[in-house]
Design goal:
about 240 residues; alpha/beta; Rossmann fold; Arc Repressor Mutant, subunit A; 2 domains; five-stranded parallel beta sheet; 12 strands; about 40% helix; elongated; disordered N terminus; disordered C terminus
């Protein structure tokens, strides 16, 4: 499902035994405008989910409560004992307040009651990702090839030329260096950098334009937009954190 591009996609694991709901997930994500933002797998039992998690990294689990074998709640508890960072949404027909509280206290990040609109699911997913990533790293130095960013002091070094960044430029660059090759929506960037959803997106555009110029031709051209989805910083290698 990854396709031929180099984008790093968020990996979703759906744990759902009902075929109609599996098809709903599959049809929506296969035809979503931002489908290239995600890659997904679907399993039918908690046992299968736990085996899958032993072998591969997952960013989000959408977990049904009522499953054959071990329950969704027990699956949630076992996952949380090993992984505190993976996002987990419980998706089930159960709507009792006591059960919702039980799921959240067991480690669920959010709760959706079936049936739900998939657009609501996508909005919740983006909200959770923003909440998890709102605290961006702005300390130390980061280096990719001949580009080095001193994020603490707000300087760029391109081929040893020192360039001063504004506070917002520094914060925007921190997002892209922290997760290169990942598409970030304008809403996400504005929440992380400004702390709220700025209504005038031209403000963000102006800061991005200024940052591109300061990065220079080679690196500025790698700060790209993806129509309808957002912006990403393209690099052929992983981020190297300078000592």
């Amino acid at each position: 499902m990854m396709g031929g591009d180099a984008m790093i996609r968020s990996k979703i694991l759906f744990v759902e035994d009902e075929k109609p709901t599996q098809n709903l997930y599959r049809d929506f994500l296969d035809h979503s405008p931002c489908r290239e933002e995600f890659v997904y797998d679907i399993v039918s039992t908690g046992e299968e989910a736990l085996r899958r998690l032993e072998k591969e990294r997952v960013d989000l689990i959408v977990l049904d409560w009522t499953l054959p074998g071990i329950s969704g709640l027990e699956t949630l508890s076992r996952v949380r004992r090993k992984d505190r960072l993976v996002l987990i949404i419980m998706a089930t027909a159960r709507s009792d307040a006591k059960e919702i509280t039980e799921a959240l206290e067991a480690g669920a990040d959010d709760y959706l009651t079936k049936p739900f609109d998939m657009k609501v699911f996508l909005a919740r997913l983006h909200s959770l990702k923003r909440r998890r990533e709102l605290s961006i790293e702005t300390q130390g130095s980061h280096r990719i090839e001949d580009l080095e960013a001193d994020l603490k002091n707000g300087f760029l070094f391109v081929k040893n030329d020192r360039i001063e960044l504004s506070g917002k430029e520094r914060d925007i660059l921190a997002v892209f260096l922290h997760r290169p090759n990942v598409v970030h929506s304008t809403d996400y960037l504005s929440e992380v950098v400004w702390g709220y959803d700025i209504k005038d997106k031209n403000i963000l555009e102006r800061h991005l334009s200024s940052l591109r110029k300061k990065l220079g031709k080679k690196w500025g051209d790698r700060l790209k937009s993806k129509h309808g989805c957002g912006y990403y910083f393209e690099t052929s290698q992983g981020l190297v954190k300078a000592p």
